[in-house]
């Protein structure tokens, strides 16, 4: 019998019909497996204007599903936050003078202590106190120049107003030294001349002294507070207040950033990053795109095979202008972007999730910065958070020409506890939608 079976088997091997059926079965099985894998693989695309909070949402996903941040990243954020904190306080001093806000620290007769603190701060060169290569090398330095150099600000102003503006407000030799910056731009970030300067500067003004100066000015100068309350009129880091409140930590050479610091820190995204997680048995790929105008031309490269788009809107920025072009209101820019994406052919079948983000800042600023000043058709009461959020939500929903649902969440992306709930709900929704689309549900 064994012999017969064996003969029958070798007979099958010769049968061209059976051979072709086996080959077909194999292709079919492999297609099935591929399909099954695709159903289990989800691609979530984070989009929105610059600084809206996309990377912060991604950081929360990493905390939830990837065990958080590595040591290198913690060191990087310590460096970046230090540089941003020092420059942010300088910006407040400079802008107060431009806006005609009297500063206590400008008056040595009445406030000698703050006057000295200010002089010390204005002498500080943050790049001399950090390791630029650990902060991100040439990418960090390029970004730093773009954000803080006088030339770069003048360029943006010229673009916005159509004419060059004399840079007012600088005193005490507080010019940005572009030569020093370009020295720092050497590829490896270990420039010997810069290192020498760093050593000399550290001897003259220590990080601790700079941190004390920032802390004192923040706590005791009424003009600095007034200027901060008007920071929608110029460009200031979203988390500047947090940096000032915690500045003494960052001056400590052995300090390692906490999760909260990293969530508050800002490193502009360049290009598109891809991060993979497993949520249950589903493989999630999250694509985080840089949102500033110059970054958007890269977006199209990742528009294919997207399971869901998560559009992040900084709802608090209704009274702020774009960093890239100070003629354009940030909310108007987001409305335009959302309209284009939602109604584009690329996403005609893709679910959209909308995060009304930075609700904490929104709540805090509503009374001092009435929505109607920027959106004259707003009918709600001044300071009414719910009415304000509903108003902006309805503008975004009204752009939907496709009739498909848009899932809206009000978020504070820096708050881990609340984001845990939101992101779990979003992941469940996307998984369900994906199963429905693939005919499993
Ligand atoms: N207070 C507060 N700050 C937030 C919130 N979301 C983000 N931020 C801060 O806003 C800044 C910018 O956030 P990012 O996540 O880097 O913004 P982005 O959209 O990735 O910006 P690009 O990479 O330029 O497109 C960071 O300093 C964040 O800590 C929020 O809900 N509340
Ligand atoms: Mg980003």
Please characterize this protein's 3D structure.
- The chain is α/β, with parallel strands linked by helices and 441 residues long.
- It has two domains: 44-69 and 269-434, P-loop containing nucleotide triphosphate hydrolases (Rossmann fold), CATH 3.40.50.300; 71-264, GI Alpha 1, domain 2-like (Orthogonal Bundle), CATH 1.10.400.10.
- The protein is 54% helix and 9% strand.
- It has 20 helices and six strands.
- It has helices at residues 2-14, 16-40, 54-65, 71-99, 112-123, 132-135, 137-148, 150-161, 178-184, 192-204, 207-220, 222-229, 240-245, 247-251, 259-264, 293-296, 330-342, 359-365, 385-397, 416-437; strands at residues 41-47, 272-279, 282-289, 308-314, 352-357, 406-410.
- A six-stranded mixed sheet has the order 2-3-1-4-5-6, with helices on both faces.
- β2 (272-279) and β3 form a beta hairpin.
- Bound molecules: guanosine-5'-triphosphate (GTP) and magnesium ion.
- The site of guanosine-5'-triphosphate has 26 residues, from α3, α15 and α18.
- One of its GO terms (biological process) is pheromone-dependent signal transduction involved in conjugation with cellular fusion.
- This is Guanine nucleotide-binding protein alpha-1 subunit.
